[in-house]
Amino acid sequence: MKHKKAFAGIGLAMSAALVLAGCSGDGGGGSDPEVQEDVQFEEGTTMAALAEKGSITVGTKFDQPLFGLAGPDGTPEGFDVEIAKIIAAELGIAPENIDWVETVSQNREPFIQDGQVDIVVATYTINDDRKEVIDFAGPYYVAGQSFLVPAGNPKGITSDPEQLGDATVCTVTGSTSEENIREYTDSVITVDKYSDCIEPIRSGQADALTTDNVILAGLVDQNGDEFEVVDGFFTEEPYGVGLQKGDDEFRDFINDTLEASYEDGRWENAWQSTVGDNLTMPEPPEVDRY
Ligand code: GLU
Question: Ligand 1 — pocket residues by CB below 6 A?
Fold first, then answer.
């Protein structure tokens, strides 16, 4: 057993705010934020360039129900997708002019750094290591790391990673989930996407999947009654919008947009139209203008 991190105490408070309600959302059709017309931005800014181009490239997850899940035509749906649509709309860009690119956990920083995407909205935890190479606006949501287990929880896994015993856990390469769980155990299988952990659990190769509670809730919802999420959390994961490092004007613009969306109901609509009743409606977190 490795050393315990300082998060164990926050689980109960957060689980009270995020109780699984056990029913599906409304299908994730989206909140359709009003697209601004005749937008004006200072010349030379990223906002001006994107508005002029009339499109934006957004990196998001394609395999995470509730936050970012690609439909049959390849267009993703979910809360992250709606947050990106709110930002695009404020740039005068309609949802159909967003180019969606699938990002997995480990390619988010490189995709931002080399300009393959303009922003990443992808269950993306703000942390100091990532801030070395990219910047974050937000947070726009705060999740917490937990465990998905087979229904009935045969291994008796709890949200306390100190109690994992001989359990093998599956998680995703390059995620904070991997970094956090390795503090406690070496019995870790890593894959590229969280949905790739489902088969190893079915086959008994892994006993649990560990990542953010909201991702786990989406996977439970997608798989009928086959799995459950254990109560509580052992980390705090503030989700940010990733953008190129040093683009302070763009970061301010996204932060302003997020704050406005908290006030005028767009953020709440985004939640209701995607996550809906799957999780209790949270309060929007305070934006961190570091
Ligand atoms: N929020 C965590 C992270 O950014 C885990 C979820 C994910 O991999 O997207 O790494």
Answer: 105, 122-125, 172, 175-177, 211-212, 215, 237
Q: pLDDT by residue (tens digit) across 68-114?
A: 999 999 999 999 999 999 999 999 999 999 999 999 999 999 999 99
HSE-up of 252 (CA within 13 Å, CB side)? 7
Distance 1 CA to ligand 1 centre (A): 23
Model confidence over 235-278: pLDDT tens digits? 999 999 999 999 999 999 999 999 999 999 999 999 999 999 88
How many Cβ atoms are within 10 Å of 265's Cβ, its own excluded? 12
Is residue 208 within 8 Å of 184, Cβ to Cβ?
no
**Domain 46-141+238-278 belongs to what topology?**
D-Maltodextrin-Binding Protein; domain 2 (3.40.190)
Q: Hey, which residues does 208 pair with through a beta bridge?
A: 169
